[in-house]
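Reopening this one. Same input as before:
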Amino acid sequence: MGVLENRIPPPLVATLIGVLMGGADCYLPSFDLTLGLRVAISLPVLLLGLGVCLAGVLSFQRASTTVNPLRPEKASALVDGGIYQHTRNPMYLGFATALVAWSLMLASPFTLLGVVAFVMYMNRFQIDPEERALRLLFGEEFVRYCSKARRWL
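Same output, byte for byte:
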């Protein structure tokens, strides 16, 4: 088990990467787009990300199970309906989509590397440990679910 596994709340990881993207934007080339156009492009993507994230949270609440990503062993139900039929990690997908929106707002294609960093971090330090815990909790039911729903998209 790595020292960072299930240690940093995913919203904080996304926020930190977003801050780094914003800081890096000062040093990276960007497209010369008006603020209005940047908002028009990024806002629908942000709303999509927030909607995906919210759908994940609501599915967990309906199942009366924990949404705390730092304690996956506390899950009381395997949520596999609703948005979880399409992605095993809608909340993380929502955060990644919000980071794409931020990159679009910054109008710097190089800041998309922040989204890549987020996905790589989440895969290694959040999702892999979560899935190990869920495999222990739910066994073959979780394995079957993984064969039906993709990790991200």
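So the earlier flakiness isn't reproducible anymore. For the record, The CA atoms of residues 2 and 125 lie 7 Å apart.
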